[in-house]
Amino acid sequence: MSRTIVVKTPLNTYDISIESNWLDLDSIIGGRKCLIVTDETVYTHYESLLSSRDCVILPSGEETKSFKYYLRLIDALQERRFNRSSLLIAFGGGVIGDLTGFVASTYMRGISLVQIPTTLLSMVDSSVGGKVAINHPNAKNLIGSFYQPEAVYVDLAFLKTLEPKVLSDGMAEVIKYGLGFDSKLFSILEKLSLETLLLPENEQTLTDIVARCCELKAQIVGEDERDTAERQLLNLGHTVGHAIEQHYLYKRYTHGAAVAIGMNVKSQLAKYQGRLTEEEYRRIDNLLLQFELPHNIEVTEDWPEILKAVHLDKKSTLDAINWVQVDSVGHCSLKEITFEELIKSVMEIVTL
To answer: CA-CA distance, 320 to 21, in Å (whole number)?
Structure first.
């Protein structure tokens, strides 16, 4: 069942190791001075594994990805007299991975980082590729850098502890890879559901799904590490999704739920503009339903205010943005459009 995906960038090469029930912290740490960063929820599940280690346990939730907790971790490293030969381990989901990665990238201008993702979302997306960041009150991931880990260790057994809502959240990113890049992956997902994903008989399928998502991201990151061209395609659903998260102060919608809404908006636009047939759109719509993901915000009157936040998207220029559009199931592309065009076209869809 084990798989290894190699990520190659101009300056770094590292492995994503995927297996189940295999994690060995001693071999990962290798005698180095090490600090493990995790959150309260993850620590509750893995206290027996982590209690004998030097850990910082942070509150769970998107609010932790902030300057407040960034400084707390910097203080913790300084108190322990960490240096460039020390190791920082992110043991958790996307919030912990992003925050810890940003700390690793800035403490002493960079110390060793290992990502051990514990959620599906972080396994297939946020732990891979070196994007690390914290949020600003006005925009998600506004303060960040590019910093590759020395390795990513994926233990699929961790998924068994996830609540259905958290598993659903991760499936939004998995669906993104199928919708935007791989029609075969999309078809595989159509045969599953939130209830069947973790069944023993689907273990090999799950391993293949996670590995395929990592392969796709590794390939794109290798070609465009700094997110100036092709890597922007990985933001399918994220321009609208991040705006939703920011508008509701990261409390009403999880990242996956917001991205799912963003993908549905783009799929509706593709149907409306003639790139998708009604049948193709229904496949996308039904797949989101199968994994219990939302299609729209609860209060549609909020859309005008939400869309104001797209000006802070990192794919934007002075008056335009590289908009990731759906062309077909398994293919997406970048199109530069003005903010005025974007807001007008989205409002036409969400108010139908």
So the answer is: 47
